[in-house]
Amino acid sequence: MKTLYLIRHGKAGWSEPQTSDFERTLNKRGQKDLKTMGSYLALKGVSPDLVLSSCALVAQQTADGLLEKLDFNGEKHYLKELYHSSVESTKEIIFAQERRVDTMFVVGHNPHLQELLNSLQEEHISKFPSLAIAAIEFDVAEWNEIEKVKGKLDFYIFPKQFQYYMPKQIRATLG
To answer: Considering just the CA atoms, what is the radius of gyration of the chain in Å?
Structure first.
């Protein structure tokens, strides 16, 4: 069994117009949302074996912020190939991962993450907002086998789902 978490980076700011897209950082809402989403993953007991993130600053901040909330003992890599990448090139990166990796985070950008999500499982997700997280389970032994099967969407969450109701277990971790 393999589980892939597709994670769009958090809300980024444009407070400094001279800053390139690659150098943007999380804004206040992105930082707040990161705590909420990290708490949700921690509450679910998620612990990845491998984290692959775009090397854009906002994606790195997202990956690092989520991992602060989790019991993370795995590997983490920032890849330029995940910045403005295509669905096919991201699939190639995923397919190349070792068998020993059962749970993987891929932190990146839209629109390709949403397209990737829709290509890997049956349900159609029409929106993949900032800091959306989709967990897809695959009944396979090797990552390259997911090329031939559709995964099962375990969950799909995003920060605005917690706008009006936040479970007390998550609220308690936000301090």
So the answer is: 15
Q: Which domain holds residue 168?
A: 2-11+22-174
- CATH number reported for the structural domain that contains residue 94 in this entry: 3.40.50.1240
Kindly list the distances between the CA atom of residue 143 and the CA atoms of 4, 22, 74, in Å, as whole numbers in the listed order: 10, 29, 17
Contacts of 44 (CB under 8 A, 6+ apart): none
Whole-model pTM: value is 0.91
Does the residue 16 lie in any domain? no
Q: How big is the chain, counted in residues?
A: 175
The per-residue pLDDT for range 13-45, each reduced to its tens digit, is 766 666 666 677 888 998 999 999 999 999 999
Do 78 and 60 meet the contact criterion of CB atoms below 8 Å apart? Answer: yes
